TrEMBL record:
UniProt feature coiled coil, ranges: none
Protein name (Swiss-Prot/TrEMBL): LacI family transcriptional regulator
Superkingdom of this protein's organism: Bacteria
Protein keywords: DNA-binding, Transcription, Transcription regulation
Length: 325
């Protein structure tokens, strides 16, 4: 720590504590042990930490999405707003739709110091942006990040367990040819869901058919395309697990175009349990991800009231799955 400006992340690393703990000490919160408080304060004095004056903030939290185009972001925002109201702060929601220009504008605004912290959602939690914000001594938290950064707390859900439960449900119904439509490979959640899919097969003693794996991008059109490729196989699957609800609805459309009925001829499972899942025809069996609760936990984390963490998922069985013919 020999640069002109020491960051909060560097203080946390030197003290061997989490970033939220340093934030709590800096803001004078009581929920830190006296021994930890003394160690952190001594490091701040030693390295001349010059963060902003405690609680001189604007009562504002910035939430940054890569894009805002579906109810997935909407459910997170509902939870963010509820927790922000409870903490008597406001949120400003923005996206990086315009790439580098959006990133520069965000950093320019944050340099003015008018924020209590920044929540970076999914693909926005990139190493360059995290580093730039850390240099500004802005408290950070990641929401379902693309990658995990050692110096930033994050909030996510039990993606592995959810995917394993979804696949186990299909296996228990008697399906043995189960298609998989993956999400964006670079996302931590995609990797965990893929691992859960294969773990369920392993636990059931069933060999998965690797020829029944197709790649999607979490948007409905990719579900139509990937689902169509699976259904056009010489030996098509009797069930498909799509890694989110949007792609699962795409599978519905691919099946409709081919005269394949759900669930009589094809069982379909999604992931997220967005509001539209229960109104699909037929209602979609899916893994409920606590999106609102994740948003609320992200707010508490960036304010130093929590240390992030993983929230549980739950399989919701509806009418899109049945035993194979």
């Amino acid at each position: 720590m020999n640069r002109d400006r020491t960051t909060m992340a560097e203080i946390a690393d030197a003290a061997g504590v989490s970033l939220p703990t340093v934030s709590k000490v800096w803001n004078g919160r009581a929920d830190v042990s006296e021994r930890t408080r003394r160690r952190v304060e001594e490091l701040m004095r030693k390295h001349g930490y010059r963060g902003r004056t405690p609680r001189q903030e604007s009562g504002l939290i910035d939430v940054v999405f890569s894009e805002i185009d579906c109810s997935w972001e909407g459910e997170h925002i509902r939870g963010l707003e509820a927790a922000a109201f409870e903490a008597d702060v406001r949120i400003v929601v923005s996206s990086l739709d315009h790439g580098e220009a959006s990133r520069r504008r965000l950093l320019q605004r944050l340099r003015s110091g008018h924020t209590d912290g920044v929540i970076l959602a999914t693909e926005t939690a990139t190493a360059p942006l995290v580093a730039a914000l850390s240099r500004l001594n802005v408290p950070l938290a990641a929401l379902d990040p693309v990658a995990r950064h050692a110096d930033m707390p994050f909030v996510h859900s039990a993606n592995f367990a959810g995917a394993r439960a979804a696949t186990a449900h299909l296996l228990a119904l008697g399906h043995r040819r189960i298609g998989l439509i993956t999400g964006l490979d670079q996302l931590v959640c995609s990797q965990a869901r893929r691992d859960g899919f294969f773990a369920a097969h392993d636990e059931a003693g069933v060999s998965p058919d690797l020829d029944l794996v197709e790649r999607g991008d979490y948007n409905t059109p990719s579900g139509i395309t990937a689902g169509g490729r699976l259904l056009d196989r010489h030996h098509p699957p009797t069930a498909i697990f799509a890694m989110n609800d949007g792609m699962a609805i795409g599978v519905y459309e691919a099946a409709r175009r081919r005269g394949v009925t759900v669930p009589d001829q094809l069982s379909v499972v999604g992931f997220d349990d967005l509001p539209g899942a229960r109104w699909a025809s037929p209602p979609l069996t899916t893994v409920r991800q606590p999106l609102r609760e994740m948003g609320a936990l992200a707010v508490r984390t960036v304010l130093g009231h929590a240390d992030g963490g993983m929230l549980g998922t739950e399989l919701v069985v509806r009418e899109s799955t049945s035993p194979p013919l």
